[in-house]
Amino acid sequence: MHLSLPQRALLVKLFYLNQSSAAAALREYRTCNNLRKGPISINALKNLIKKFEETGSLAVRPGRGRKPVSEQTASDVATALVESSHGPVAGSSSARGVARQLEMTPSTVLKVLRKVLKFYPYKISRLQELKPNDTATRLTFALTFLARMEVDDTWPWKILWGDEAHFYLNGDVNTQNCRIWASEHPQEIVQIPLHSPKLTVWCGFTADFIIGPFFFENITRTGPQTCTVTAERYRDMLTSFVIPQLQQRQCLDETIFMQDGAPPHIGLAVRNVLRQNFTEERVISRFFPVAWPARSPDLTPCDFFLWGYLKSKVYLGGVPNLMTLKDNISRTVMNIPSDMLRSAVENTVFRMQWVVQQDGGHIEGGRRLFAD
Questions:
Q1: Full residue range of the structural domain in which residue 165 is found
Q2: pLDDT at 117 over 80
Q3: Are residues 136 and 97 in the same domain?
Q4: For residue 80, is it within any domain?
Q5: Is 120 inside a domain boundary?
Q6: In whole angstroms, what is the distance from residue 156 CA to residue 299 CA?
Q7: Half-sphere exposure of residue 307, counting CA atoms within 13 Å on the CB side?
């Protein structure tokens, strides 16, 4: 920010009135001028004081300071940005690439983009690829879902939304957001095993309660061992874990069971168990009258809420072994507030409405629909 001569004089005066404290001088200056920040940094004020004490002058020498960006430069940058917008994602471009093309410094290009064109860099969202027929299927399902609500407005609250997820022992290290502040580069690395130990977890929840977690594992001589989810193991989970808990809550006869179309979910033995306990009308799945649309994690509250919420909690403080990870998952699931579950189901209804507005297309890129 360019300072006028009176502004410089005031800053120097405040510096000496505050016992030669640059920070105190800037605070008082901001208070006097109703500023939240600025007008210069502490180091810049110290340099100003140093030059004043050396020269006895507050004037700026001719030719000093940043030169304004010309209209031609701004026009060249805008044109080059449009021409360079190609690649795997439409509209993506590189500020450094534009700088090389125009033989400008990257700082000049960034200045034009931010201060003249008012452009800012945005990250690309990755979404599940939809096949050609998926949009029609998603639209039909959303319309059916909302039409069912017109007949029975309590219908969504009776759905048991179920799914599985993997929790790896090493968790995730986001190198984009993780920084180590030090005077020298620490050359820190994170070693990731080729096959990290993991837990395979099933959970299901309604607007009122949550069932789980259920861990898919075999008991061996060395302890529990995570196993692959098969149709037989999935059926055993339903008969020995899910259905007894619903019976204990005395809500089996009114619960609607939802699952995606993963192969273990649609085995013949599994379908028979679901028909015997929930009937054809109270199952949302492939091979049932109401089929869950494929490739639609954005509509499943387990995917757009539960798993992300759990993984943001269970790795806090470090996880030395699978037993600790297992305990963390169980404890976190038990402590999920009931109002959070209901909010997730309500958000599912909003997502169905949004799918209709999008004619069955993606909804996650349109706006943020859920916040914990």
A1: 132-175+195-358
A2: yes
A3: no
A4: no
A5: yes
A6: 13
A7: 20
